[in-house]
């Protein structure tokens, strides 16, 4: 089996991973970057981004990541392998840490002295008819990203937890009406958020109800709803749906190696260092307070900067 050695491995080529790669080049670190499918991550499904500086009035997620990829190309940065990294093993515990990777179906292993995990997170989905077709075309998982696109329109927020209610309140800044569709007859959100939502005249609750189907033309136009108690179904015209039924970190690689929080996100300090020496995390996979493109790129820059310090014993 072929063995490849390098100083740093970056796992994930989304905004965090590519940001880390740019700063790794600038620090003259010998590194490799691996990505499972394609560069970009979740951002590629975002219809419009209005809160990333330097572009106006807005830019699609796909176009933004293409610009970042072109920027990386000037430094000769591109993912080494479009392949799933199957396992990460920590060796050399008696001296400097060393990490060993195995890629799915590949007859080689990679060893490195430091690692940046930038594998992101994925929203929980409803997995109902039409959902996949309208992601980025009316179905969204980020009110901060897409809320302004729905000025004076009507939207649904699916969910009843803290995130769902926080984002519904945020959406009232733009939408003329926000419907909260929840499968139960009471919210799981903290009381303070519940009070704010109940008092907001733009918010209307649809209790004991689930979304069964998304439909429309080029964009989402309608959802099919079902009351879980009565079984009654109805169709509802709508401009957009924001799903907030949960989010999962893609942190499987470091389970048992680094400390995770109760939700599976990687715990880091302000330098993006995890609880394991030489292992850093950046972007949505870590326990961050804000999951946005701008913070992911910044995380990557910080992680690479401090990975360089680690590699040089600083």
Description of the structure:
There is one protein chain. This protein has 314 residues and is of the alpha/beta class. The chain has two domains: 2-122 and 247-311, 3-Layer(bba) Sandwich (FAD/NAD(P)-binding domain), CATH 3.50.50; 125-243, FAD/NAD(P)-binding domain, CATH 3.50.50.60. Helices cover 23% and strands 29% of the residues. The chain contains seven helices and 17 strands. The strands form four sheets. Strands 1, 2, 3, 4, 5, 6 and 17 form a seven-stranded mixed β-sheet that branches. Helix 2 links the parallel strand 2 and strand 3. Helix 1 runs parallel beside helix 7. The two termini are 34 Å apart.
Which characteristics define this entry?
single chain; 314 residues; alpha/beta; FAD/NAD(P)-binding domain; seven-stranded mixed beta sheet; five-stranded parallel beta sheet; 17 strands
Please write out the topology.
Layout (H helix, E strand, L loop, with lengths): L1 E10 L3 H12 L4 E5 L25 H14 L6 E2 L2 E7 L6 E6 L4 E10 L3 E3 L7 H4 L4 E2 L2 H4 L7 E5 L3 H10 L5 E5 L9 H9 L3 E4 L2 E8 L3 E8 L5 E5 L2 E4 L3 E3 L29 E3 L11 H19 L3
Parallel strand pairs: 1-2, 1-6, 2-3, 6-17, 8-15, 9-10, 9-15, 10-11
Antiparallel strand pairs: 4-5, 5-6, 7-16, 12-13, 13-14
Helix pairs in contact: 1-2, 1-7, 5-6
What's the mean pLDDT score?
88
Query: Mind summarizing the main beta sheet?
Result: 7 strands, mixed
Tally of separate domains: 2
Terminal CA distance reads 34 Å
Number of strands: 17
**The CATH fourth-level homologous superfamily of the largest domain:** FAD/NAD(P)-binding domain
CATH architecture of the largest domain: 3-Layer(bba) Sandwich
């Amino acid at each position: 089996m072929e063995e490849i050695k390098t100083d740093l491995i970056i796992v994930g080529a989304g905004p965090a991973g590519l940001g880390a790669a740019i700063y790794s080049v600038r620090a003259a670190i010998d590194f490799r970057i691996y990505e499972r499918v394609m560069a970009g991550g979740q951002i590629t499904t975002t219809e419009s981004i209005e809160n990333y500086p330097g572009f106006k009035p807005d830019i699609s997620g796909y176009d933004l990541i293409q610009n970042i990829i072109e920027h990386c190309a000037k430094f000769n940065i591109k993912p080494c392998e479009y392949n799933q990294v199957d396992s990460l093993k920590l060796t050399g515990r008696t001296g400097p840490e060393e990490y060993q990777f195995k890629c799915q179906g590949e007859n080689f292993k990679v060893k490195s002295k430091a690692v940046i995990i930038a594998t992101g997170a994925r929203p929980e989905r409803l997995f109902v008819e039409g959902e996949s077709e309208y992601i980025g075309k009316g179905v969204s998982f980020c009110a901060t990203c897409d809320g302004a696109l729905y000025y004076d329109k009507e939207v649904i927020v699916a969910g009843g937890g803290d995130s769902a209610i926080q984002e519904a309140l945020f959406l009232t800044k733009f939408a003329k009406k926000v419907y909260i569709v929840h499968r139960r007859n009471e919210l799981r959100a903290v009381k303070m958020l519940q009070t704010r939502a109940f008092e907001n005249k733009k918010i209307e609750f649809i209790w004991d109800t689930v979304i069964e189907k998304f439909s429309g033309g080029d964009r989402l136009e309608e959802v099919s709803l079902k009351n879980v108690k009565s079984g009654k179904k109805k169709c509802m015209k709508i401009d957009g749906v924001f799903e907030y039924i949960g989010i999962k970190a893609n942190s499987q690689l470091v389970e048992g190696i680094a400390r995770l929080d109760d939700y599976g996100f990687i715990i880091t300090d302000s330098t993006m260092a995890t609880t394991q020496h030489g292992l850093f995390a950046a972007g949505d996979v870590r326990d961050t307070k804000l999951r946005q493109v701008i913070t992911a790129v910044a995380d990557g820059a910080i992680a690479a900067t401090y990975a360089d310090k680690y590699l040089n014993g600083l």
